[in-house]
Amino acid sequence: MRLITFTRKDAQHPEIGARLPKPSGDLILPFADCAKLKNVAHFPSGMKEFLHAGDLVMNQAKYWMQTAHADFGSILLSANEITYLPPIMDAEKFLCVGKNYRTHLEELKRTNLIKEIPREPTSFIKLNSCLSGHFAEVVLPKGITKLDYKPELVFVIGRRTLGAKKADAMNYVAGVTILNDLTCRDLQLREVTSGSRFWTGKNIPDFGPLGPEIVTIDKIPNVYDLWMTCSVNGEERMRVNTSDQIWKISDILERFSRFIPIESGDMFSTGAPGGVAVGKENADALYLKPGDVVECSIDGVSTLRTIIVDEV
What we know:
- With about 300 residues, this protein is α+β, with helices and mostly antiparallel strands.
- The chain folds into two domains: about 1-85, Fumarylacetoacetase, N-terminal domain (SH3 type barrels, Roll), CATH 2.30.30; about 95-310, Fumarylacetoacetate hydrolase, domain 2 (Alpha-Beta Complex).
- It has helices at about 30-35, 45-50, 55-65, 70, 100-110, 185-195, 250-255, 285; strands at about 1-10, 15-20, 25-30, 75-80, 80-85, 95, 125, 130, 135-140, 145-150, 150-155, 175-180, 185, 210-215, 225-230, 235-240, 265-270, 295-300, 300-310.
- The chain starts with a strand and ends with a strand.
């Protein structure tokens, strides 16, 4: 199932639903309308609550999907009637694991951005306020000239765990989505040379295009044999298999659930694959510019599209 969060055109209230599979991939099933038609009381209205509700609600939604055309033909929405939002807008924790692809580490070593491979998973926090959805425009702040693309596989947690073990890790995963962890290399390279992270621009350049959907884990045959790709204006810039990851979700979940509970709706981004602009000799020509259309994909599964625009 392909779970989405969206608003209808000219509306402000976020809703959740699912995108119908091909050949009906341009149709959206809104769960709130389904619940109303079927007199289902108190159906979750947000994605985090939907995941927290567990198998009973998930199976209800899957059944609605199976009978979508027969039972809900009158309420199906066209994709051009909605605006995609980040699939989860209010995660308690969105942890981004860094330095997790062997090919990417080699790039970073060549550019002196790292000196050694971490001995265990490390992460930083992605704030909810920086997240944007599928087809969103990302503003390039004045003064930033080295904006890099970074497609990342994201694991979405379906149920609470504390002290998870590697062998059970996938039992806590609801599905996967895509993050384009756009990175300002200006700041990274400045930090390497000066030791400072201070940014004097008008906006804090933190970006988080996420989506377009959560693809439930039952639809992914092998999360460690997926091709992550990134294209800019239709030109493929990278293609790396998730088998290149150093730390698997089992390692990551065991590591970070040792002392803090991991809740339904929490997310783990698993790092950038090799092939980013900063690792190439012609990097300056590859950094993103206003007008660029960036497509980050799990090949054959899902594609997240972002448009880069200039700061007004």
